[in-house]
Design goal:
Layout (H helix, E strand, L loop, with lengths): L5 E9 L6 E2 L9 E2 L2 E2 L17 E2 L5 H9 L7 E2 L17 E2 L2 E2 L6 E3 L5 E8 L7
Antiparallel strand pairs: 1-2, 1-10, 3-4, 5-6, 7-8, 9-10
Protein name: DUF4280 domain-containing protein
Organism: Paraburkholderia acidicola
Amino acid sequence: MANLQVCAGATLQCSFGGGPAVLNVLPANRTIVGGAPAATLLDSIPIVNITPFAMCQSPTNPVVIEATAAALGVFTPMPCVPLTPAPWIPGGAPTLMIGAGPALNAQSTLLCAWGGVIKVVQPGQTSTLVP
């Protein structure tokens, strides 16, 4: 199986998320893979790049804490608003630069401030060219 590039439209999952999310990649680096902009480790901005994961189930998320307190201690998940203060952590040694940042590979992870670990489920590239 080919090593597919992570690009716009990739499916992501957070360990505390209630559902998958989509990776948005702006075409600023002008690198297109299979018709979609290629992602870099710097594509980690909440809402712009990392869309919400349905309901957040993190017990450290202040909104979840507040909702749980309002429900008299009954754990209450709330809508996800990811908070990713740092870029993706590379999965292995980055070998390809795209614009100003290393290419994002499917083994990379992204940490949410609420304790979640975000991983790539499907990289977004659906085909490869074989010379």
